Amino acid sequence: MKKIHFHLTVVLILLTGISCSKLTENPESALVSEQFYLNQGQAVAAVTGTYRKLYETGQSLYNSLFQIGVEMATDDYEAGPRARNAHVRALSNLTHDASNDRMEQLWKQSYDAINASNLNIVNIEGMTQNQIEATVQQRLINEAKFLRALHYFNLVRWFGPVPLVVRPIETLSTQELYVTKASEDDVYAQIINDLKAASSLPNYKNYSDADKGRATSGAARSLLAKVYLTRADWTNAKLLAKEVIDKESYALFPNFADVFDIEKKNGVEHIFSAQFKGNSGYQGNSLASRSAPADIPGINGDYADALHAEGGLYKSFVATDKRLPITFTTGMTSPADGKYYALAKPQFNKYYDETVVGNQSQSAKNTPIIRYAEVLLIFAEAENELNGPTKEARDAINAVRTRAGVENVLDKENKDSFRELVFEERRKELVYEYQRWFDLVRRGANYYVTKLKAAGKTNAAARHLHFPTPQRELNLNPKLVQHPDWLAK
């Protein structure tokens, strides 16, 4: 991802309040949006800046907020020994409510990123041929649409009906400030339209090294397949996944460890990822620190996230599964004293970065948002729902299992047993990649509650299929209403 060499100050009226969104690389200059989109370089920089909203330092969406704001509410994770924040522990225990500040941040940061995409789309559409090449102009517009779709896809799955805003909010009028919720169908229709437009983006092989990490045709089609899967539109989910498999030139890395090898970032399996730079001005992946032990000399972790003691994730792996020693660790050698320290229980290890000097929050490992292994599993699931566990469905899941060193799924499975095999394969393959909560809730209340209670999270209830609309947003916007599942009984 290119470094952004500008400072853009946009007065942002965001649904229910006013905030200031800054991209601060050059503090000597400050430009309002109308003054900024004057040439191609500025347009590229503006869209590049919007990518950073995925993973900016601190608790940003794909840099720990997703983990502590969403994945804590699953059967795989719980608040670790050093997670003392009451809001985080409430999510882990499923005692959260509309006042939870992590819900507020998920909502606020997502709409901040959506507004940035809206600004990019409108302003770049208005640029003339003297300011920008037509092919670059359309590419940037479609990149912005891809990012907008991604954020709305998250929002509608978290909160259900949400406000649908597709233009920058430009005035202080109550008509623009106070926005009602759109139906889930309307939000999904917008997501699908944006991703169809973004499907005309270039193939990832057409990007130079300097542009690796940007949205591509493969990223748009893969995400669209996932949208259709979430909507139980099996026909289109299979169609789009098949297009990616046949036409987009992706492949599995030969070894699972390669997926998290820093030297192979943005490689053949990486369809779209949050980009991190270790030891580089606090642009690191803090997930490494959150899951690393705090009591081993030289590790500098904070032990804030832990495997759920009752959920059985670690024990669900067979001992020979090649993903096991990459995903988890049972002990670590101290870089300070050279001694080996055994851990009391297995700990996440995917993002631990041995090249980092000092604080593990500077891990350079990217966080996958969607990768080719998931596309294979999307295809397998959709094909099974349409036609049962055919050879095509088995071949797709077995490609993932073969790399992991796990025995193949045979033709003895029926549709129901194969469905569960796919979900368990997703659970193992995509650990710590922000998929588990979405997978649990799309199976419905009975499935979610049963899985959570089996893991010892006895507070699990049907209302946890969505998060409550943040109370602060309800207070500021009189047109917003709480999700029905979270209304006081």
Strand content: 5-15%
The strand count comes to 8
Give, in spatial order, the strands making up the sheet with the most strands: 1-2
* 3D shape: globular
Spatial separation of the terminal alpha carbons: 48 Å
Instruction: Report Rg.
Output: 22 Å
Sequence stretches where pLDDT stays below 50 over 5 or more residues: 1-32
Number of helices, counting only DSSP H or I runs of 4 residues or more: 19
**How would you characterize the largest beta sheet?**
2 strands, antiparallel
Average predicted confidence as pLDDT: 88
The ordered string of helix (H) and strand (E) elements is EEHHHEHHHHHHHEHEHHEEEHHHHHH
Question: Which range best describes the helical content: under 10%, 10-25%, 25-40%, 40-55%, 55-70% or over 70%?
Answer: 40-55%
User: What structural class do you assign from the helix and strand content?
Assistant: mainly alpha
Report on this structure.
By secondary structure, the chain is mostly helical. It has 19 helices and 8 strands. A two-stranded antiparallel ribbon has the order 1-2. Strands 3-5 form a two-stranded antiparallel ribbon. The protein has a two-stranded antiparallel ribbon with strand order 4-8. Helix 14 (372-387) runs antiparallel to helix 15. The radius of gyration is 22 Å and the shape is globular. The protein starts with 6 loop residues before the first strand and ends in a 13-residue tail after the last helix. Mean pLDDT is 88; it is low at 1-32.
